[in-house]
Amino acid sequence: MEWLEVGASLALWQKLALASGWVVAVIGLAESLNRLQVINAEGVRKIVHIGIGNVIVLAWWLQIPTWLGIGASLLFSGVTLLSYRFPILPGINSVGRQSLGTFFYTVSFGVLIALFWPMQPQFAVLGILIMAWGDGLAALVGQAWGKNRYFIWGMKKSWEGSLAMLIVSHLIASGVLFSQGYSGFWWMGLGVAIAATALESFSKYGIDNLTVPLGSGAIAFFLSQNL
């Protein structure tokens, strides 16, 4: 693919600058909007959640080395852990917050890159994008329009949010698989979307930020090998 070849031709320092610049820009934008009182802390988390997830596409285009992807995941995982005790990322994590979602999110990058990079990066990309867009938009839809509620393990969910998760996950999974030439992309995408929605519904304490991307990537890989 020509667009991948262009990314691969860039020097390592250019790749680092582009990927790091994207992450800094997303966090900077979210924090700035929060300081201007345009959005609240939850809005900051959603912008960062969705925005940073897209760095996996940039990493795919740039053909970031495996060691660099895993190293960045370890670094940011450490930062997020510290941010639960100290105000390093005040708009993203509240001190003492009872969820390790941000930590699990950063860990999922490293695990998926370790599993699928560089031979089959599409499954890592698929998993992260479903977590970023599917889960992120599901929460926004549920908060804004979720009127039909259901409860799982004491957690309050909405059918509207779960439907948004299913639709967005299907579009992402099908799109990524189609771009790689899989003939059964629609049915494979549907299977991934159903699994991702179920994992999101049943996960507690932010662990869906780990189970959804890993589960989506693994199921997509399994289906690609058996259908």
Molecular structure report:
This protein has 227 residues and is mainly alpha-helical. Helix 5 runs antiparallel to helix 6 and helix 6 (101-116) runs parallel beside helix 10. It has helices at 2-8, 12-35, 41-53, 55-62, 66-83, 101-116, 121-145, 159-179, 185-202, 208-226, and strands at 149-152, 155-158. 42% of the residues are buried. The protein starts with a helix and ends with a helix. The chain has a two-stranded antiparallel ribbon. It has one domain (2-226). It contains ten helices and two strands.
Low-confidence stretches: none
The DSSP helix count reads 10
Question: Can you give the helix content as a percent range?
Answer: over 70%
| Rg, Cα atoms, Å | 17 Å
Number of strands: 2
Main sheet: strand order: 1-2
Mean pLDDT across every amino acid position: 89
CA(first)-CA(last) distance? 24 Å
- Integer tally of domains: 1
Largest sheet: 2 strands, antiparallel
Tertiary shape: globular
Q: Give the H and E element order.
A: HHHHHHHEEHHH
The secondary-structure class comes to mainly alpha
Content of β-strand: under 5%
Quickly describe the structure.
The protein has 10 helices and 2 strands, in the order H-H-H-H-H-H-H-E-E-H-H-H.
Keywords, separated by commas or semicolons:
227 residues; 10 helices; mainly alpha; single chain; two-stranded antiparallel sheet
Would you spell out the secondary-structure blueprint of this structure?
Layout: H1 2-8, H2 12-35, H3 41-53, H4 55-62, H5 66-83, H6 101-116, H7 121-145, E1 149-152, E2 155-158, H8 159-179, H9 185-202, H10 208-226
Helix pairs in contact: 2-3, 2-4, 3-7, 5-6, 6-7, 6-10, 7-8, 7-10, 8-9, 9-10
